[in-house]
Structures
1.
Amino acid sequence: MIKAVEEGGSIRTVAKRFGVGKNFVQKLSTRKRTLGHIEAFPQGGGESPAMAHQEKIKEIVERQPDATLLEYSEMLRSETGDWVSPSAMCRTLGKLELTRKKKRCVPAKPKASGCSSSGSSIGSR
């Protein structure tokens, strides 16, 4: 494509010939002209900062298995100085195959033993 543009072809004609959008051809042409190549830029992302503290996270979860993700993040920051978001903490716990056991906030309700026989019938005439 770049060669076709360099040989004098219009961006629209080259785009139509190769079945791509004209903006794509224009961006490639600009990249070749300014950078001297058309290789893709490096992608973002990378490893979460939490993955650098795997052992510390395991210790924290073992110590307090009922903490929230935010509490885990705050504990990690207080112990290492590094902050990770609760969502990053959740992903890290999943990768480490650690489960969190939550305490019940409210005691379990007793199961009903059946209908009461008070003699009143609801909904009948």
2.
Amino acid sequence: EKIKADTEELTKPLYEMSAAMYKEQEAAEAEQTEPNTGEKIVDAEYKVVDDEKK
């Protein structure tokens, strides 16, 4: 029972710290988002060709 209580005591600050770090990272990513520059981005499909098979 003592181990469980100690584990919970150590885990709670870890969760709080992780949540704070996540919020900071999320805010930093939001600041780095660039506005649309008018460039058109297209997803393309491709096929890998093995040059060694001849």
3.
Amino acid sequence: MEAFLEEFQYLKIRLEAIKSATRNFDNNNIIGKGGFGKVYKGVLSHSTGQTTVAFKRLDRNYGQGDSEFLKEILMLSCYTHQNLISLVGFCDEDGEKILVYEHASHGSLDRHLRITTLTWRQRLNICLGAAMGLCYLHDPKETQQRVIHRDIKSSNILLDEDWNAKVSDLGLSKIGPANQQHTFLATNVAGTFGYIDPMYAEKSILTKESDVYSFGVVLFEVLCGKLCFENQNGHLQSLVQTWKQSYEDMKLDEIIFHDLKRHMDPSSLETLSDVAYRCLHKSGEDRPKMSEVVEKLEIAVRFQVISEEAEPQMDYEEISKNAVPPLIYSSSEELTMLLSKGILVNEGKTWFWLNKNGENCEMISPIGSLIPIDPASPEDYCRKKSSGILCTVLFGIQNTCQHTIFVTTYHLHYKPCIQSRRLN
């Protein structure tokens, strides 16, 4: 072991410095416990200042030992990604074995599943970040070997101060050959109840799809706002089959975390629940790769962002009430005709009309709405079309006062993507 650690001497931290940072492992500094032992928070002094870090102290009574300690050092020093927890250093001195990590100030995901202030959009981004970290382990670049985590669960997904996900605890991970599409490793079953791939538990054959299964469980936890198991009469009972059945019976509404429902975009919910269910297929061959999971979660995030940024749907009657002067009409056909001719709204500052294609258009009055521009700058053209949203800045008109008027065309029930800014 000493020969192995020689290669990583640059990461070594003196025990004296760790004791100082944790106040001699004061219980008040404990921020967590896991399969390795207790985790302490502390401020580590170094040549350039001070850094808040987490110290994971090996306790052999927890059942893990030298191999897990060495594996963490090897993995986290060789595999670095924005969605993997970073290794700051380690200590192997006076019988102590301590791993030092970056501090994830919001703790682990499992502690936030039931927190109503953790929004659906935040949850989606956390899932996406964790998926990206796991995808990196499964499909490393260049000559690095594939890593199968083997213990993916919500308590092993840490959250930094900006709620970015960090996959952690690689002590049980296994390394597979590089540049191979499939990895099959015969190994003793390890992991956590509720998250373990049933096929892995049955045959003791570990694959990267085993991690995919575990991640699918985490996705359902995020969706349902609870852990994947519960204590019933002193026995742990898995909820995974119940969740799968609810999906198959199209009864997701019965299991979704109640406080999230009204904030969920339906397409976002459908995208996440679909990929979560696919991750839980009995056969590993039917499960998606983590790269596909990442793609689906990116789509789910986009749906949610579009939904949140879209204005509430308005109808023509509401617009007519804001007309100057108010419109008088006796039928919807008459209202449509009036709108096709154009009306003034917004206290006379906006000209609104319905064009021949049925699209709703606005022209902003230059009075009080002008944007100074550089007289030598070109006119600005932009067009964006995404997920059924049409949003077009048709043209910019430079007048003699060096101002620009924007004319926009958009579907009424979506928020127009008007960019009011100085033109470059």
